[in-house]
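Thread: "does anyone have the structure for this chain?"

Original post by V.I.:
We have the sequence but no experimental structure in hand. Need at least a predicted one for the grant figures.
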Amino acid sequence: MKKEQRLEAEKFLLQQISDENPNFVDDTMQKFSVSRSTVYNYINTLQNNGELERVGGSMPYRILYKTARFTVDTSREHSEDRMFNRDVAPLIADLPANVQKIWRYAFTAMMNNALEHSRATAIVCVVSRSRLCTIIGILDNGVGIFRRIQQDQKDKGGEIPTAAEAASMLYAGGYTSDPENHAGEGIFFTSRLMDHFVIRSDYQFFTLSDDEDEEGGERFRGTAVQMALNNDTLRELSTVMNRYIDPEDGFVHTEIPVARFFDGDFPVSRSEARRLLAAIEDFRSAELDFSGIEEVGRDFAHEFCAILEQNPTLHPMVKNAPAAVVAALRRAGLHEGGFLTEV
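Reply from O.Q.:
Generated one for you, tokens below.
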């Protein structure tokens, strides 16, 4: 087998192990028309290269990552682009150009948040790479992102949100505690660029992932951001941006995962409807993804439709709503044009 084919087979094998496919040996044999002994030769090579480790159990191997870390003293370093060029870019220099561009945007956006909003004295960055993907973590010892939002709301004289409500304010994008200097777009776009994205602070977290564990876990003081991206992703920075940005008017379209917005609860009250629609009032259009919401309360549905009737400039589109939610919103007055049928 030629070197290129062998590398492809090894990568396929790594992906099957990463996906915890119990038939990883047989599937590799079948896909590349090789013998069982050849597949185990690949496994031995991967172990010798430090890419795979035998652990036993039902899935006897696990992927290994090569890890580098650096610490930022915020009293001395203030330039996130210099940090990227010095400490991160050399570690991903062999990746495709589109992947490097995404990482440059994501790293500098999240590091800038830590430098300018967290009030941290130190920031730790951890870069972990396998042949399949790259993971970057940015951890600071600051006040904590959700506590910062709570304090910001208190200072503005409004109700102090819970930690979960503070997290929900990030889903639509555009929120910032410093509107004169920041647009509040970094978390929104970075979360859409990554394959996996999560922010943790105290016991609360922000993520778009459906499989993120919401229970337990240790308290993290400060803010921890974890980002993961497939090394071979075909995603383009400009394509993702163009879904939400108008060339002349800027960030005009947004989307909200409603189940995440309400921290896994189904919305029942008028105040929840007001909070959801307030999150999109500055956008030209918005998609409200009701995946995971099995039902909504009558008061929520009535207030939702009443606000839309009073504010014709609001243009939310409901998508992935189950029959019970669709029926409740239609009874409350949401017309057919307010629904998207595609999943």
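V.I.: this helps a lot. Residues 97-117 form the longest helix (21 residues).
O.Q.: and The mean pLDDT is 92.
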